[in-house]
Batch of 3 targets.
Target 1
Amino acid sequence: MDRVALRGLKARGHHGVFPREREEGQTFIVDLVLGLDTRPAAADDDLAKTVHYGIVAEEVVAVVEGEPVNLIETLAEQIARTCLEHESVREVEVCVHKPDAPITVPFDDVTVTITRSRV
């Protein structure tokens, strides 16, 4: 399976279990790896036979900016479902970064990574 990767998609969301997270919001960063067969698109040089990663990026940002959820695990699941709605995408790896998580000790990042595929 071929891979199309989008790294560092940034959006402001209001996800989290604490009131402050819901009220103030914070930046979330999303990395995606889309699994698909790019051979038909490459053979015909045809965008319609692959995934339009610009549209995927816009859809993922809309999910992050959309309805708040408590857990980044839930957010990752919603993003994966959105990506799999594209016909050519057979598998997706989603990594959601929460660099401003409310943690009381020094840290660089918190991430949740999931892989989902068509059944």
Note: The chain is about 30% helix and 30% strand.
Target 2
Amino acid sequence: MANALQELVKNRLEQQGWSYGDVARRGGIPRSTVHHLATVAQVARMPQQATLEGLARGLELPLDAVRRAAAEACGIHLYFEDGAGSASDPEIATLIASLQRLSDADRRHVTALVESLLRSTPDHDTQTGTGPGSNSGSG
């Protein structure tokens, strides 16, 4: 059974009559990468952002559609902040999706770490970059 990314790539190739090379050239990524993502039975880890962007360009599909298919192929469920289906920050979407793969005990540890970080850094510091560990500000 094909995973979500395989289905997305293969369907698009069939619809448009494209080859792996066609997609690779348009997306600026190696043909071997396109072939691998279209044929691998299980995607071991989320492809890098540049790969996802190139694949989206090559397939002429929205980046979010490619990112969702890749995440699903990895067993990750992405979280999107707005109803339009686009994450305001890809790192946030990946972090949230990754948390779902952790055990209950590990999630509690991550939650405790985040709460500790939030308590130690006032909101203003996290948004302006003037908090502890920042290179800006007087010293």
Note: The longest helix spans residues 104-120.
Target 3
Amino acid sequence: MTTLKATLQQDLTEAIRARDELRSSTLRLTLSAITKEEVSGKTARELSDDEVQKVIAKEAKKRREAAEAFAQGGRAEQAEREKAEGVLLDAYLPQQLSDDELRQIVAEAVAEARAGGAEGPRAMGAVMKIVNPKVAGRAEGGRVAATVKQLLAD
């Protein structure tokens, strides 16, 4: 078992013992999403820590989107719960890049792509290929793409 998955299961056990309903239900759902990912496909396999992290990031993103939808629908109580679950899951993810750090990484990638001959808006694919491995798990794809577009337009 990977160390991140083991940590999640340990934290679930502690949350159940402490009768922390929010934490235990969130961790249960996340662990079931991890298990679902492990058994999907032709053969069952054990996920690496990076893959587990991706599942947790996906679950956290679902919570943020659901919180937004509930808030727009006028269900503030449910929106708060979804936000709290998202924050709880964020604790298991690597520290997110600040806007300045992301901008710096993208600026270097744009310079590198331009040196390779990529110009204008068509260079987005080349820049994204350079940026994605550097920011994997530390910045959402939409945020990265928006920054790339902005810097390519400059």
Note: The chain has seven helices and no strands.
